[in-house]
């Protein structure tokens, strides 16, 4: 709580007002000294003496009043300071207490992930990196708190429709601290195009396309919240005010509940390198990238395994992003995962994170 100098000045003006008023009354209301012309010098002297005594008495009273006023001002000022200090302490205590539920919740979800072995913290973002190794597969989890909604963005390969680049190149080119691959794509005429509905900087790249088959949209709203799902009407998606987003398949969790994984995606392929993204109740993000040595279905994780993992970690909404050779996780200028192609695959869209 800051004390405004103008408020302090007003306080002292109000406190001094009685004293100033009293002096004003003495100067303005008290009759001037008059010296009658017809009286004798002795009478004039007597009258002057009486008036002088009267003025002296009033000045003494004014002096006492001023002393009392100054004493009152000192006491009031001290009380004001004490009240201000108490209020500051109350505000600080209230602020600390208001953050306790958030701190407790964060400890609870972090405890399920283990101990982070790498951390990035700034006034815009906090990133914590964990290892995921349940035995069947292994990978990495990146928990992200966006303190500033603009700390996460989506980039387009070489900044043009039909372009593609690796996540590492996108991170370095845009000066980001971290990045993952985003939506799916379709190749044509030697170019690589984002799959279905894609939003960049609040605008549709190729127009809105109603959700079909198992495809779903996932992105971030203008206020920094993860949004996603099937959208059959553009007005519904527009109402969420998407800042950016891409499309792939399928939805894994919605509102804390598992969404049935389509049979096709249980076996096509059964196991694979994966990239999934979700959000907690407090809007923190959780990204899991799973390693695999190829896309033949024999390594990596199944979608049901990752669905169960995200569910057990307390994630509310979760979406599968492009996987296989596209899966990539970059942090602090290095490749964290082990790309199944042996090298990072150029893809058209990336989710980037900034300090």
Structure description:
With about 350 residues, this protein is α+β, with helices and mostly antiparallel strands. The protein folds into two domains: about 90 residues; about 240 residues, no CATH class. Helices cover about 35% and strands about 25% of the residues. The chain is built from six helices and 20 strands. The strands form five sheets. Strands 1-2-3-16-15-17-13-14 form an eight-stranded antiparallel β-sheet, with helices on one face. Helix 1 packs antiparallel against helix 2. The chain starts with a helix and ends with a strand. The mean pLDDT is about 90.
Structural class: alpha+beta
How would you sum up the major sheet?
8 strands, antiparallel
Q: What value does the average pLDDT take? A: 88
Helical fraction equals 25-40%
Pfam families: NAGPA (PF09992)
Transmembrane segments: 12-33
Protein name: Phosphodiester glycosidase family protein
Keywords: Glycosidase, Hydrolase, Membrane, Transmembrane, Transmembrane helix
Characteristics of this structure?
6 helices; 355 residues; alpha+beta; 20 strands; 5-stranded antiparallel β-sheet; 8-stranded antiparallel β-sheet; 2 domains
């Amino acid at each position: 709580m800051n004390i405004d100098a103008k408020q302090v000045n007003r306080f002292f003006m109000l406190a001094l007002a009685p004293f100033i008023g009293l002096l004003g009354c003495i100067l303005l209301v008290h009759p001037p000294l008059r010296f009658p012309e017809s009286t004798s010098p002795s009478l004039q002297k007597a009258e002057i003496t009486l008036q002088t005594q009267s003025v002296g008495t009033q000045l003494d009273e004014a002096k006492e009043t001023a002393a009392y006023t100054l004493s009152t001002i000192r006491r009031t000022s001290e009380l004001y300071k004490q009240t201000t200090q108490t209020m500051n302490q109350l505000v600080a205590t209230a602020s600390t207490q208001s953050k306790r539920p958030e701190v407790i919740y964060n400890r609870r979800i972090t405890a399920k992930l283990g101990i982070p072995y790498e951390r990035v913290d700034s006034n815009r973002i906090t990133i914590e990196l964990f290892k995921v190794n349940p035995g069947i597969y292994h990978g990495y989890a990146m928990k992200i708190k966006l303190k500033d909604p603009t700390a996460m963005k989506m980039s387009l390969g070489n900044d043009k429709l039909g372009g593609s680049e690796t996540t590492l190149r996108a991170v370095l080119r845009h000066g980001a601290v971290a990045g993952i691959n985003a939506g799916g794509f379709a190749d044509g005429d030697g170019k690589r195009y984002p799959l279905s509905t894609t939003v960049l900087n609040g605008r549709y790249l190729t127009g809105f396309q109603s959700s079909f088959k198992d495809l779903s949209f996932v992105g971030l709203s203008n206020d920094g919240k993860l949004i996603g799902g099937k959208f059959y009407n553009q007005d519904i998606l527009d109402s969420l005010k998407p800042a950016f987003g891409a499309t792939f398949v399928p939805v894994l969790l919605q509102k804390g509940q598992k969404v049935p994984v389509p049979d096709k995606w249980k076996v096509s392929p059964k196991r694979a390198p994966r990239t999934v993204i979700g959000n907690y109740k407090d809007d923190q993000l959780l990204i899991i990238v799973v390693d695999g040595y190829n896309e033949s279905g024999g390594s990596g994780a199944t979608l049901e395994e990752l669905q169960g993992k995200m569910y057990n970690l307390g994630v509310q909404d979760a979406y599968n992003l492009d996987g296989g050779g596209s899966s990539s996780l970059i942090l602090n200028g290095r490749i964290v995962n082990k790309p199944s192609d042996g090298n990072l695959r150029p893809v058209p869209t990336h989710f980037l994170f900034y300090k």
